[in-house]
């Protein structure tokens, strides 16, 4: 690709990828249920260095292990964004959250959320942001003017996490691989393709909200031209065998042009979550089909390992289960949160 085209592509990528302003004040409010505070928990776990503190209305609320700060204290310490770390059933916005967000925005703090209802649609909040010079960033809303895919090869290396199903560890696997790569001194960047991942990374594109014609183009922008020895570790979405979400997985796979894939699975899961009439595909089929599609745009794509969420396995069975999968597929097989991903990286490099 000519240098002028590379510069043009890089500029377009920087304009199209959502970028958040740290440090974060994570909004918890009065949420006491960990299930509805997973976004905040993920940010605090993976990017504690980007978090200034947490805003809780009561000490009984979920605790992310961050300093408890009032809004005034956070502003005085230079907080860049109020990040909504919780979600309500139905995607609603509480009066308590709205009050805090309006005050934060009027004082210049960006408001960041991944709720189903865009915060930018709330007139009072939009007005406060305009007056305070703040941005309202609804991370579920993709950037405008995304291009269609080109299929052109880009400099740099890419690894994509793929899965047998949704919600079984693709994001956490990618984050752990990036962390372990950097610990080895390798150049590596986590590329976020979902709302929580974007908040953790501080940038990204919500791939599952992109119009289908532009999925591949968005994925290409998500992982732009880079140094020849640099690895982009791309957060996967959905699963190519999923009865509802396969299209986004297919588009992300083609646009990522991965040099390597890691297959993610959850031990003991036998059927597609939420679709009980559909059995999960075998790991073998997932490897074969993902590589077949990936090699359409990168003939050298390989599978370097299997990542398993073993949280539902008895501890005594975990090691034998992983060894059995490793022997069956002749690939390293790990639970990334327990074991790390060194064996996957060994296979990769």
TrEMBL record:
It comes from the Bacteria. Gene3D superfamilies: NAD(P)-binding Rossmann-like Domain, P-loop containing nucleotide triphosphate hydrolases. Residues 63-142 form the D-glutamate N-acetyltransferase-like N-terminal domain. It holds the Pfam family DUF1611. Residues 148-344 form the D-glutamate N-acetyltransferase-like C-terminal domain. PANTHER family: DUF1611 DOMAIN-CONTAINING PROTEIN, GLL3100 PROTEIN. This is EBNA-1 nuclear protein. It comes from Hyphomonas beringensis.
């Amino acid at each position: 690709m000519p240098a002028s085209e590379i510069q043009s592509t890089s500029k377009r990528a920087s304009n199209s990828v959502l970028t958040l302003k740290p440090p974060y004040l994570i909004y918890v409010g009065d949420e006491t249920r960990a299930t509805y505070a997973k976004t905040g928990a993920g940010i605090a776990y993976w990017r504690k260095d980007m978090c200034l503190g947490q805003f809780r209305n009561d000490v009984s609320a979920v605790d992310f292990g961050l300093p408890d700060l009032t809004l005034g204290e956070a502003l005085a310490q230079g907080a860049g964004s109020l990040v909504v770390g919780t979600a309500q059933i139905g995607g609603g916005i509480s009066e308590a959250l709205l009050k805090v967000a309006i005050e934060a925005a009027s004082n210049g703090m960006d408001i960041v959320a991944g709720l189903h209802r865009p915060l930018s649609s709330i007139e009072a909040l939009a007005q406060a942001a305009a007056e305070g010079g703040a941005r309202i960033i609804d991370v579920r809303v993709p950037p405008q003017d995304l291009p269609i895919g080109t299929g052109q090869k880009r400099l740099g290396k890419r690894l994509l996490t793929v899965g047998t199903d949704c919600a079984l560890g693709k994001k956490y696997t990618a984050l752990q691989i990036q962390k372990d790569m950097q610990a080895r001194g390798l150049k590596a960047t986590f590329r976020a393709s979902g709302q929580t991942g974007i908040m953790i990374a501080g940038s990204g594109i919500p791939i599952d909200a992109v119009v289908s014609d532009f999925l591949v183009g968005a994925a290409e922008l998500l992982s732009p031209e880079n140094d020849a020895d640099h690895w982009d570790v791309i957060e996967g979405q959905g699963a190519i065998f999923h009865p509802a979400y396969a299209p986004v997985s297919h588009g992300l796979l083609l646009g990522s042009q991965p040099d390597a894939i890691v297959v993610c699975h959850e031990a003991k899961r036998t059927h597609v979550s939420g679709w009980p009439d559909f059995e999960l595909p075998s790991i073998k089929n997932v490897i074969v089909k993902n590589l077949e599609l990936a090699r359409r745009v990168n003939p050298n794509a390989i599978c370097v390992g299997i990542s398993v969420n073993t949280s539902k396995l008895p501890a005594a069975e975990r090691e034998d289960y992983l060894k059995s999968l490793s022997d069956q597929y002749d690939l390293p097989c790990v639970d990334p949160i327990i074991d790390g991903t060194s064996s996957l990286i060994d296979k990769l490099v």
